[in-house]
Structure to design on (200 residues):
């Protein structure tokens, strides 16, 4: 069972703390730990920390977490998410065990915001079929409009924007169809109002 079920908190505000908790729980296994950055260095901020994602100040947090026999660094701070995904997607271990879900464990749920985003990113880099062990790829392909609808609604999100721009250029007719669908169906006006779907 995921310990996030035991220590409940809004993901954006606590995910770094959850991860570092696990690092310290297994502290004897390493002397140096690289924690993947969510944002690049240009987004670093310690302003209004009670109202924003804790990743904004990971660089500072990593320094504070480090102790004499364990140094924690933020990795990939100069790479984009697409670059990072391309790098790790070559690993057979990642293909078998990648887990990004904030809802279920050990298998990804396919429908939480992190699963949706990661599946779209895998589609973007043409690596979908290599991740069938961890995502229901057939379900995604059958329900791609659902994923794109949510992407369009949240297109200004920092993480979604490059994905949206990719699909806008690669599949402009499909994105236009999604936009029309959103306009015609007022219930899709907010991302939270999107219909719930379940992975098989």
């Amino acid at each position: 069972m995921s310990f996030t079920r035991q220590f409940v908190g809004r993901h954006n505000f606590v995910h770094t703390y959850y991860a570092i908790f696990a690092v310290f729980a297994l502290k004897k296994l390493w002397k140096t730990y690289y924690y993947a950055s969510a944002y690049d260095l240009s987004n670093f901020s310690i302003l209004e920390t009670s109202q924003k994602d804790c990743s904004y100040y990971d660089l500072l947090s990593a320094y504070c977490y480090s102790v004499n026999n364990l140094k924690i660094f933020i990795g990939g701070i100069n790479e984009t998410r697409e670059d990072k995904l391309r790098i790790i997607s070559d690993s057979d271990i990642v293909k078998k065990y990648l887990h990004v879900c904030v809802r279920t464990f050990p298998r990804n749920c396919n429908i939480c915001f992190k699963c949706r985003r990661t599946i779209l990113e895998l589609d973007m880099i043409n690596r979908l079929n290599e991740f069938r062990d961890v995502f229901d790829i057939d379900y995604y392909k059958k329900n791609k409009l659902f994923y794109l609808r949510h992407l369009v609604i949240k297109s200004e999100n920092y993480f979604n924007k490059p994905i949206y721009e990719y699909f806008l250029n690669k599949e402009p007719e499909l994105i236009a169809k999604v936009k029309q669908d959103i306009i015609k169906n007022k219930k899709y006006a907010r991302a939270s109002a999107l219909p719930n779907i379940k992975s098989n």
In short: Residues 1-78 form one domain. The longest strand covers residues 32-36.
